[in-house]
Specification:
The chain is of the alpha+beta class. It contains 10 helices and 10 strands. The strands form 2 sheets. Strands 3-2-1-6-5-4 form a 6-stranded antiparallel sheet, sandwiched between helices. It has a 4-stranded antiparallel sheet with strand order 8-9-7-10, sandwiched between helices. The chain is elongated.
């Protein structure tokens, strides 16, 4: 690497450090910024931050050509990033097509002919990797490795107390009353599922549910009775095949993400759930459930939620007009 290029990269890293210090970026935004700078400074096609979760490495942050792969999981045992975590040292593959340490098929899918993985440490433990890759073999040099090492140190310095590096805090993503995942978990999960939809083309449906008669139970019997209603509905959701995809997003509102499910199929499932609420005589039989459904058609998360919300409001209007 030329001295001129080395100096330019160092200046950019210092600028990144200054930008982080001077800003009010949260942990996720810092990760995104550093992944973008890693891609830029190594002239690569993609920047990725992978976090170790059990036996898998998960794409937690993506940039460039890797953007559609947000949420992708790789087996730790057969990936260079997993080996990087296990060994706690920088690993570089100059030609993934001829490297027994990598999953060659996975590399071809993401167009990664060469790559560098740098370990990310938190409290003395390697918890993930900062990775860049290129569609060209032998793209990277020793200077690129040094650049990534400096950026990984930036992450450690600024995120040493951030929950993003911890095993995901269940409490911070769980609704204390019902035990379901909460709005924060929903907002984190939605872009991951949309990225998968964009990548695979498999349908994705969103169901928003609002309880009918909930205000009346609260007003007549008090909030403890209302809380019990919410717990009973949550139990019905947890007993369903959709348990891992259910969220309490506020008040008596729930959301269900249904990957691989068309809006028509989602409506069948939602009707069954509404019938189950009635059949269980929740709130002494006074509680029902209205729902709105939207399917992803290359729209963003905000638009998907808005479409489901409009459908829910229309369902409520029909209910009140009958009443």
């Amino acid at each position: 690497m030329t001295s001129e290029r080395s100096d330019a990269q160092l200046r950019e890293i210092i600028r990144t450090q200054t930008e982080i210090v001077a800003s009010d970026l949260d942990a996720k935004a810092i990760m995104q910024l550093i992944a973008e700078r890693a891609q830029q400074l190594t002239r690569s096609s993609s920047g990725v931050i992978e976090l170790a979760e059990g036996e898998e490495m998960v794409y937690a942050v993506t940039t460039g050509e890797a953007t559609p792969y947000l949420g992708t999981s790789l087996k730790r045992a057969t990936s260079l990033s997993g080996l990087c975590v296990s060994e706690g040292r920088v690993l570089r593959s100059d030609d993934t097509g001829d490297d027994p340490r990598v999953d060659a098929a996975a590399c071809r899918r993401v167009n990664a002919a060469s790559m560098i993985c740098v370990p990310l440490a938190h409290q003395g433990e390697t918890v993930g990797v900062l990775k860049v890759y290129s569609p060209q073999a032998h793209h990277f040099d020793d200077g690129d490795v040094e650049t990534l090492e400096l950026l990984s140190e930036l992450i450690a310095a600024h995120l040493s107390h951030a929950n993003l590096y911890e095993a995901e805090s269940r409490e911070s993503r769980q609704d204390a009353l019902t035990g379901l995942a909460n709005r924060r978990a929903f907002e984190e999960r939605l872009p991951v599922e949309l990225a998968r939809f964009s990548r695979s083309g498999r349908p994705l449906s969103l169901v928003l549910i609002d309880l009918d008669g909930f205000k009346g139970v609260n007003d007549r019997l008090g909030h403890p009775a209302g809380d019990e209603v919410l717990r009973q509905v949550a139990a019905l959701l947890q007993d369903s095949r959709m348990a891992d995809d259910c969220f309490r997003i506020g008040g008596d509102e729930f959301a269900i993400l249904m990957p691989g499910t068309s809006p028509e199929e989602a409506e069948i499932a939602a009707r069954r759930l509404a019938d189950a609420v009635r059949g269980a005589e929740v709130g002494a039989g006074e509680i029902g459930a209205s729902f709105g459904i939207a399917g992803s058609e290359d729209i963003d998360g905000e638009a998907l939620v808005a479409a489901a919300d409009r459908a829910l409001l229309a369902a409520k209007d029909r209910l009140y007009s009958r009443g």
